[in-house]
Amino acid sequence: MTNSDFDAYRPPQPERKRRRRRAAGEVRRTGAGDGSREQPMVDDIQFDSYYGRPIVKAPPWKAPIALYLFVGGIAGASSLIAAGADATERPTMARNARLTALGAVLVGTGALIEDLGRPERFLHMMRVFKPSSPMSVGTWILSTFATASGVAAAGEIDSLLDEKLPLGPLRGVLQAVDGPAGAVSSALGAPLATYTAVLLGDTAVPTWSGARHGLAFVFGSSATMAASGAQLLLTPTAETGPARALAVAGVVGDLVGMHYTKSQMHPLEAEPLEEGEPGRLLKISEGLAIAGGIGALLGGRNRVVAAASGAALLAASALTRFGVLNAGLESVKDPRRVVEPQKARLEERRKAGVTDDSITTAG
Amino acid sequence: MSLLSGPEGPITDAGWGHEHHRKGFFTDTSVCIGCKACEVACKEWNQNPADGERKILGSSYDNTGALGANTWRHVAFVEQDGDRIEEARESGRRLVSLGMPGIGPKESRTAEDGAPLDLTGADRSHPDTPEFRWLMSSDVCKHCTNAGCLDACPTGALYRSQFGSVVVQQDICNGCGTCVGACPFGVIERRDDGTISPKGSRDERFDQDVPEMGTAHKCTLCTDRLIDGEIPACAKTCPTRSISFGDRDEMVADARERVAQLHERGMTEARLYGANEKDGVGGTGSVFLLLDEPEVYGLPPDPQVPTAGLGSMWKRAGLSAAGMIAATAIAFAAGRK
């Protein structure tokens, strides 16, 4: 008889085995030996958690999301650099920054779609605009930014190829919307680079939630640092003066921002940022950022030093994103990171005289 | 979709109007016997696949582990000795009562089969000894008033039903996973596995054509059953009425009455979880009566809906974005050739 669809998966029933004989020497747990008392099934249980099992779940976000956080930052900050380079007549840097922005945003979009449980339903993101969902807001920022960057970069590519793109009558349209598209992409660049901090902060994951006060500053600085680094790597030193200054500013912002972020967190929430694999990534990132910053400041006029510094800054930014993402994923594994900060804030509110907002009540 | 629910309640805020009643569970863990019938009934009714590998977890008689994409009811088992019982009693005494007015006798209320719901004669005395006790508790989605998962969903796949529950539309969800991190209780999860191992073959496992892979899953409050006037499978099957189901107001009133009863008997360890509308999630649709601190059962002691901090987070992101723009502008202005 079939009651459920799952019954179809049942293979023919194998023959029933006899119950396994108890091996010699194997001890069976009994109570007092005479069945008079109940024997606890668990030894040495601690009651501050349920068998040390996680309370909250981390989102199923893996390396593609960290990659997206990284390249999304590059794309956003590069579009700002492109606008600045345009305004100050640095055509090579403007072109390189535009193309960097487009390349990064394409990689990022691909990574984002790749990490979906049902990638073919990516467009369902565009069904609604939901201000309460950072993912929704971010998707709209990303898709608008990507479209605008695509148009702006198409203009660059067309002029790079001496108007050889088979555009036909569309060339006039492209040239007309080229400027506005660049403006849109620059306007959305900074939001694209910083909204991801809200995306992580708007969770119950202890380390991300605890980092919500300062993470936006870290991500904004890290993006600036990475995009400047990309220009130090790609563009001849004659045009990269402002990128060098920005790189140094980004490094300073990154270091100060991370320090501030940690200072706002419960020690147990901050711990994953300092210890274990994520902590190691973040330490390396810090070292690379400092090295890249000093290199850009002192040796940025030398093409080789500039390129090396740029690469260091890019790597530092990537490691920051991987470190922060992984620290969050790590932080849910220990229920203490959920219980202790929550108990502390509950106690703090009680001390401040607020006694009516606990989820646990006597009646 | 409302950012955070107002005083009208989540159903009205979601646009359903006033004629709908918010439904909910009251899980009285003091009468749970740990039979796991709710787990089974839930899996059967909702046709949820098995959770990955079958493992003995070493956590008393709980080998289910936790709520997740394929597990929408989870019975926790905790074994405690005399000292811990005394501690629980003490921590219960320190709790604040909300001092809500009690309601009168409820002769007019009936059980789901139409018979009068009269439990006054039932023996609900506590079976434990002073030296040892079991804590068993059937956990479930809380169907929060201010639901983090609902707020965070970027596709609108999650919605507030006319019963006040929070439900995933399986044909809309694209599995982005944002809701998973947004749940302060760790309930909702993306279905990334699921196997079937037929009875009688412990070792063989078969990859199953699991339905709705890659999308988020959680308790639906058995929406399909509610529409047909039935109560959720877990509540229907619970042999001790540890899980009761009905209008949330009545469930909360029942819970208050029951906790007062237990306190009268000196069981000061009894406490309610989720009945307070001023808590971090605006009160839960599923209310629990617990006999120890929430974390003992794997529940968070002070859950907050992440959305509550969203305004301040956007401000900080805006500030950071402004900083990026200013820094870029200054760098280029200063470096003008």
From TrEMBL, chain A:
<keyword id="KW-1133">Transmembrane helix</keyword>
<keyword id="KW-0472">Membrane</keyword>
<keyword id="KW-1003">Cell membrane</keyword>
<dbReference type="Pfam" id="PF03916">
    <property type="entry name" value="NrfD"/>
</dbReference>
<feature type="region of interest" description="Disordered">
    <location>
        <begin position="1"/>
        <end position="40"/>
    </location>
</feature>
<comment type="similarity">
    <text>Belongs to the NrfD family.</text>
</comment>
<feature type="compositionally biased region" description="Basic and acidic residues">
    <location>
        <begin position="340"/>
        <end position="354"/>
    </location>
</feature>
<feature type="region of interest" description="Disordered">
    <location>
        <begin position="340"/>
        <end position="363"/>
    </location>
</feature>
<dbReference type="InterPro" id="IPR005614">
    <property type="entry name" value="NrfD-like"/>
</dbReference>
<feature type="compositionally biased region" description="Basic and acidic residues">
    <location>
        <begin position="23"/>
        <end position="37"/>
    </location>
</feature>
<feature type="transmembrane region" description="Helical">
    <location>
        <begin position="65"/>
        <end position="85"/>
    </location>
</feature>
<dbReference type="GO" id="GO:0005886">
    <property type="term" value="C:plasma membrane"/>
</dbReference>
<keyword id="KW-0812">Transmembrane</keyword>
<dbReference type="InterPro" id="IPR052049">
    <property type="entry name" value="Electron_transfer_protein"/>
</dbReference>
<protein>
    <submittedName>
        <fullName>Formate dehydrogenase O putative subunit</fullName>
    </submittedName>
</protein>
TrEMBL record, chain B:
<feature type="binding site">
    <location>
        <position position="179"/>
    </location>
    <ligand>
        <name>[4Fe-4S] cluster 4</name>
    </ligand>
</feature>
<dbReference type="GO" id="GO:0045333">
    <property type="term" value="P:cellular respiration"/>
</dbReference>
<feature type="domain" description="4Fe-4S ferredoxin-type">
    <location>
        <begin position="23"/>
        <end position="53"/>
    </location>
</feature>
<dbReference type="InterPro" id="IPR051555">
    <property type="entry name" value="FDH_Electron_Transfer_Unit"/>
</dbReference>
<dbReference type="GO" id="GO:0016491">
    <property type="term" value="F:oxidoreductase activity"/>
</dbReference>
<feature type="binding site">
    <location>
        <position position="35"/>
    </location>
    <ligand>
        <name>[4Fe-4S] cluster 1</name>
    </ligand>
</feature>
<keyword id="KW-0560">Oxidoreductase</keyword>
<feature type="binding site">
    <location>
        <position position="234"/>
    </location>
    <ligand>
        <name>[4Fe-4S] cluster 2</name>
    </ligand>
</feature>
<dbReference type="GO" id="GO:0046872">
    <property type="term" value="F:metal ion binding"/>
</dbReference>
<keyword id="KW-0004">4Fe-4S</keyword>
<feature type="binding site">
    <location>
        <position position="176"/>
    </location>
    <ligand>
        <name>[4Fe-4S] cluster 4</name>
    </ligand>
</feature>
<feature type="binding site">
    <location>
        <position position="222"/>
    </location>
    <ligand>
        <name>[4Fe-4S] cluster 2</name>
    </ligand>
</feature>
<feature type="binding site">
    <location>
        <position position="149"/>
    </location>
    <ligand>
        <name>[4Fe-4S] cluster 3</name>
    </ligand>
</feature>
<feature type="binding site">
    <location>
        <position position="153"/>
    </location>
    <ligand>
        <name>[4Fe-4S] cluster 4</name>
    </ligand>
</feature>
<dbReference type="GO" id="GO:0051539">
    <property type="term" value="F:4 iron, 4 sulfur cluster binding"/>
</dbReference>
<feature type="binding site">
    <location>
        <position position="183"/>
    </location>
    <ligand>
        <name>[4Fe-4S] cluster 3</name>
    </ligand>
</feature>
<feature type="binding site">
    <location>
        <position position="144"/>
    </location>
    <ligand>
        <name>[4Fe-4S] cluster 3</name>
    </ligand>
</feature>
<feature type="binding site">
    <location>
        <position position="238"/>
    </location>
    <ligand>
        <name>[4Fe-4S] cluster 1</name>
    </ligand>
</feature>
<feature type="binding site">
    <location>
        <position position="173"/>
    </location>
    <ligand>
        <name>[4Fe-4S] cluster 4</name>
    </ligand>
</feature>
<feature type="binding site">
    <location>
        <position position="42"/>
    </location>
    <ligand>
        <name>[4Fe-4S] cluster 2</name>
    </ligand>
</feature>
<dbReference type="GO" id="GO:0030313">
    <property type="term" value="C:cell envelope"/>
</dbReference>
<protein>
    <submittedName>
        <fullName>Formate dehydrogenase O beta subunit</fullName>
        <ecNumber>1.2.1.2</ecNumber>
    </submittedName>
</protein>
